[in-house]
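Quick one:
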Amino acid sequence: MELLLIRHGLPLRVENPDGTPADPPLASEGRAQAERLAHVLAAEPLGAVVASPLRRARETAEPILERVGGHLEILPGVAEFDARSASYVPLDEIKRRNPERWRELVAGELLAGVDVEGFRRTVIDSLEDLARRHRGLERVAVFCHGGVINVYAAFVLGLDRPFFFEPGYTSVSRFLVAGTGERSLLSLNETGHLRSGGNRA
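Output:
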């Protein structure tokens, strides 16, 4: 089976002073990114479409469902590690406005309060269980988050560092999941569908 891990489109910045989870929707650019992805992805047979429960992932999946039909399966185990955070600031904005904070994020210094191993285990277990439940399907698309893609890619590649690259918005990373247990990386961070419109990936 081919497992497609797709990062959500660009979300809005949300900061909730009352402490409730931010859970931002897509920005207009993020919706355009999702439409471009769906235009390309509709040519590939999808046995199932799955998403994180977070709004930005579900909204990114909507355009492909409008094209191919079917229903959206929600998989809680592929929510991002900051799902309960009261604020969400897109990485592009952090890069532009606070380069020092961006360097700290890349170095992993801002993950001090995160149970990284618990997050890693939840993601891997959830995706492996998904693969078992959908065994025999040609292709499954999972709309999720940058941290989730990092963790599963590191698992397949045998890397000790669970966060090692920045997936582009609506990027596609492909994995071959064999019923005999083998896991292979087919591609990482495909963003060709964004090039014609000039969207930042």
